[in-house]
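Quick illustration, no need to memorize.
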Amino acid sequence: MDPQLQALFEQLRDIHQPTAVSWWPPAPGWWLLMGMLVGLSTWAYLRWKTFRRQAFRREALAQLEQAINAWRQSQDDRALVGACARLCRRLALHNKPRGEVSALTGAEWLDLLAQLSPHPLQSATLDALLKEQYRAQPQIDAEALYQDLRSYMQQVEVPRYA
C-alpha cells in the first residue's frame, strides 16, 4: 500500500455516535400544540363558567314557560300573575342580597326590577306584578305579560360571583 495513503488512513478516527437529542426545549410544533391546548382549555373553562352562571336564567325561563302553559289550560289569570311575581322575586334574590330584596314593595320594588335588566318592563306588566295579583278578577293580557317577562328574563344581568 502506498505510504501516503497509509498515513491518511492513520489520521482517520473511529466511528462515533452523535449525541442524543434532548427532550428540552421541545420543537416549535410542540410549543404550538401546547399553546393551542392551553387556549382551548381556557376557552372551555370560561364557556363552562358562563353556562353555570346562566343556569338561573334557564331555570327561570323554564318556570315561566310552565306558568304560561298552566294558564293556557286553566285560564287562571290570578295564578299566572302570582307565579310571575314570585319568579321576579326569585330573580331579584339571585342577583341581590336577601336583606335588600325581601322588604321591597311598590316603587322601590319596581326600581330594583329596572336595575336588574336593560330591558324595561312595560307599564302593564309592572301594574300586573304590583296590583293585579291581589284582585279577585285580574284584568291582564297574559300573552303580553308572558312575552314581556320572557324578554326581561333573557336580559337580566348575570352576577359575576354566581
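The mean pLDDT is 90.
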